[in-house]
Amino acid sequence: MIEDHEGRRTHPYRDTAGCLTIGVGRNLTARGLAADEIDLLRDNDLRLARAICRDLFGAGFASWPAARQQALISMAFNLGEPRLAGFRRMRAAIAAGDWHRAASEALASRWARQTGRRAIHIAELMRDG
């Protein structure tokens, strides 16, 4: 009955009172999210980011040093698959095993200019492994 009354929405919307709402009537403006809900969302998004990396970088991804995996997972988490796939020169450098060039290519992007410190940290993880 609740779902019938409230509806079910996968994307945020403004309810009749103007409150930001999602799901089955979850009033984000008044209630927000509990810690366990935030953790669930994060964990689901991390699983997706790992899957994106396996898809874009192939089976070898799992054998790379953890720092490099984390760097690329962070990029996938932030960008999503279509935008990360657009880093063609960075991906080519990774495929060639040239992590210094991959880091430089990441830093030469609009994403790096937008994210600043995050991009610098990710490039360091890529370069140093």
Topology summary:
Blueprint: H1 2-6, E1 9-14, E2 20-23, E3 26-27, H2 35-57, H3 66-79, H4 81-85, H5 88-95, H6 99-107, H7 110-115, H8 117-128
Antiparallel strand pairs: 1-2, 2-3
Helix pairs in contact: 2-3, 3-8, 5-6, 6-8
Characterization of the model:
By secondary structure, this protein is mainly alpha-helical. The protein folds into two domains: 32 residues, no CATH class; 94 residues, Lysozyme (Orthogonal Bundle). Helix content is 64%, strand content 9%. It has eight helices and three strands; from the N terminus they run H-E-E-E-H-H-H-H-H-H-H. The protein has a three-stranded antiparallel β-sheet, with no helix packed on it. Helix 5 runs antiparallel to helix 6. The radius of gyration is 19 Å and the shape is elongated. The model has no long low-confidence stretch (mean pLDDT 96).
The CATH architecture name of the largest domain reads Orthogonal Bundle
Question: Which CATH class of the largest domain is shown?
Answer: Mainly Alpha
Cα end-to-end separation:
53 Å
- Given the C-alpha coordinates, what overall shape results? elongated
The major β-sheet equals:
3 strands, antiparallel
Spell the H/E element sequence.
Answer: HEEEHHHHHHH
Structural class: mainly alpha
Estimate the helix proportion, in percent.
Answer: 55-70%
> What's the count of strands?
3
- Average pLDDT taken over every residue: 96
Question: What is the gyration radius calculated from CA atoms?
Answer: 19 Å
In the CATH hierarchy, the third-tier topology of the largest domain is known as Lysozyme
The amount of beta strand, in percent, is 5-15%
Uncertain runs are none
Strands of the biggest beta sheet: in what spatial order?
Answer: 1-2-3
Number of helices: 8
Number of domains: 2
